[in-house]
Design a protein that fits this description.
The chain is an alpha+beta fold. It is built from eleven helices and 18 strands. Strands 9-10-3-7-6-18 form a six-stranded mixed β-sheet.
């Protein structure tokens, strides 16, 4: 994730979820303004500006201010009304910079406010774990004293762990066949559970997901967040699982706390619990590589040397990439766009990723004689995409229609793994087990499997 504009110190960070995200949540987010809402407000302000110029005189110098107070006091709530400038001064600024821009100062907090109310998200950073074959781990980015916050952990609560079970699909009706259990989704590995409860509690702050297990010498542990923590309702700890089922929003949070002083650069560990450790040792003892795994190569391995040539579809007939590898190009296909050939332009970098295949490669040299490559690529059509390849493609190109980009620089081609094809997703012989929530802080009211 990168900034697309200057973000001041204390500035809140925003990304666009897309209007569809809000449209599917209109029961709670119906009046969140869209980009089009601010544009409508800007057009409205231009119209009333002419009204101000016509009626505001020396004898009626407050007309503009009085008129604006009437508009802003209308109690009716809508996307349009919520996009209006928040004050008379903001309204005057909006006439020159736009209504959306007037909201930015309200998203900046002072350092004093942050020191009093904020919680550090960057006390830990990801890196290669010191544990052999553990992949990534979490490392202290600064000194963390004993009892200090390692990372906050707002929790997504799943009332019934069976909601992440996966089953074979019945080919006749396209529905799940619950008699053919496949396994659990990968998310279970990043959740906390309890042997006497159906509940799963899943932290969703990215740094904490890298914290690995160490039962011998953990330097951190989890505790319930302080009562005044944002998005933490301590009274929920006294309610039962059925109560939590009715709460479809974040209302619980844990903290990862240092058990001792943790030095900068030191890897952070917690104890996942004896039940998890027994399951892991059993998995290691019984694990066998799945069939065909000798041909597996992650996309990161293909992409790590950006100077190496990417193979064309002709070359792949004799030296194919593993089946999990897919190329993506910047190409904003819409149904109104018909087939053709286009020369690469830097403006394409703002288009969405679209699955493509390399049809041609040519060698180029820069000013100092270094060689590189430019590529021609054809976008995949609907009949060339399997479910995983086309999973997030909004509009698919019809079969037989050719859309070609020519002379694409290597940096504008992404090498990716097909969705759910990476080794951690492969269900056969994959480890799936939740981390265990400490019994001494797990509420008795949630132990709905206690007598089963």
């Amino acid at each position: 994730m990168i900034a697309d504009r200057h973000i001041p110190v204390g500035g809140e960070i925003f990304v666009t979820y897309g209007e569809h995200w809000f449209l599917t949540r209109e029961d709670t987010l119906a009046h969140v303004p869209f980009e089009s809402s601010y544009k409508r407000v800007d057009m409205f302000l231009k119209k009333i500006q002419r009204l101000f110029a016509k009626y505001e005189t020396d004898t009626n110098s407050d007309f503009m201010k009085d008129f604006w107070e009437v508009i802003s006091s209308v109690p009716y709530e809508s996307k349009f009304s919520n996009a209006l400038p928040l004050s008379f001064e903001d309204m005057k600024s909006a006439l020159s910079i736009g209504s959306a821009e007037t909201r930015l100062p309200y998203s900046v907090r002072s350092l004093e406010w942050l020191n009093e109310n904020g919680r550090c998200m960057d006390n830990i950073r990801p890196g290669n774990s010191t544990i052999t074959q553990a992949g990534r781990g979490a490392f202290a980015s600064r000194f963390i004293p004993k009892g200090g916050l390692v990372a906050p952990g707002p929790l997504l609560h799943l009332q019934n762990r069976t909601s992440i079970y996966m089953y074979e699909m019945n080919p006749e009706n396209g529905q799940r066949d619950t008699s053919q259990f496949i396994g659990m989704q990968l998310i279970v590995n990043y959740c906390f559970g309890h042997s006497e409860s159906s509940l799963l509690l899943c932290p969703y702050t990215s740094p904490s997901a890298y914290i690995n297990h160490n039962s011998q010498s953990p330097n951190a542990k989890i505790v319930w967040a302080k009562d005044d923590t944002h998005n933490h309702n301590p009274d929920w700890l006294d309610e039962d699982v059925e109560f939590l089922k009715k709460k479809n929003y974040i209302g619980l949070s844990i903290d990862f706390i240092a058990l001792r002083d943790i030095q900068p650069g030191e890897e952070v560990f917690i104890d996942y619990g004896p039940e998890w450790e027994v399951a892991w040792k059993k998995h290691v003892d019984e694990w066998n590589p799945p069939q065909g795994s000798e041909n597996y190569m992650p996309a990161a391995e293909v992409a790590k040397d950006s100077s190496a040539p990417l193979r064309t579809v002709h070359e792949q007939k004799h030296m194919p990439y593993p089946e999990n590898i897919i190329f993506y190009c910047h190409y904003g296909y819409m149904p109104s766009l018909k087939g053709g050939e286009w020369e690469w332009d830097d403006a394409f970098i703002h288009e969405s990723w679209y699955p493509c295949k390399i049809t041609r490669r040519k060698i180029i040299s820069n000013e100092i004689g270094q060689e590189g490559y430019l590529y021609d690529a054809m976008m995949l059509t609907q009949d060339e995409m399997d479910l995983e390849t086309g999973m997030f493609v909004r509009f698919m190109i019809p079969p037989g229609e050719k859309h070609v980009l020519k002379n694409i620089p290597r940096g504008a081609i992404e090498v990716k793994d097909k969705f759910y094809s990476k080794d951690e997703y492969v269900l056969e012989n994959s480890f799936r087990h939740e981390m265990m929530f400490p019994d001494d802080i797990f509420p008795d009211a949630w132990k709905n499997l206690k007598n089963q």
